[in-house]
Amino acid sequence: MTRGRFVTVEGIEGAGKSTLLQGLSDALRARSIVVCATREPGGTPLAEDIRSLVLARRTEGMPPAAELLLMFAARASHVAQRIEPALARGEWVLCDRFTDASRAYQGGGRGMDPASIESLARVAHPGLAPDLTLLLDLSPEAGLSRARQRGAGGDRFEDEALAFFTRVRAAYLALAAAEPRRFRVLDATLPPAQLLQQAEAQLRELLP
Questions:
Q1: Mean pLDDT, 10 residues at a time, over the chain (208 residues)?
Q2: Secondary structure element (H or E) that encloses residue 10, with its range
Q3: Fewest CB within a 10 Å sphere: which of 73, 97, 169, 179?
Q4: ∠ at Cα 56 (49, 52), nearest 5°?
Q5: Domain range spanning residue 27?
């Protein structure tokens, strides 16, 4: 059986990742492609429990090292229990965030050592990397405004200062510049239908 394709969608808060991922999933299913749509942190019962720990506001706070380790603990479960089995079955895995998010958020945003992040990546998903990463780019001001308009209380990442998201965005763009064959940077300020159209065009490159 032919191994499936692994596509990730990245971007700061409010970029529209979830909406785009749903649209891409529908488009692939219309082509009779089996899709596993998932997210990080999360995607398995264990990883979803860890997600709750990571995103919750708490008076104790969370050291950057603890945040990084929890992210990779969730990722290790996600890869072993959901992503790799789906790819082995020939499914397309569409994932809202993956290790590039740790590189951007914990690396760029928190200032964690890039070598430590790559070491954890080799433990959590040795040999696994996305076939394609769609980076939805927009200014931190616009992203936070969108995120806070969604209501539902948000999470502790949305409480971060603008400077934090400025660093995250810069880290994402640096990653994209370093791996132009894997990344496609899309303008997240486009209307959702137009953004979906551009993203679908990128996915066609992976179709047989």
A1: 94 94 97 98 98 90 95 98 98 98 98 98 98 97 84 76 95 98 97 97 91
A2: strand 6-10
A3: 179
A4: 10
A5: 6-206
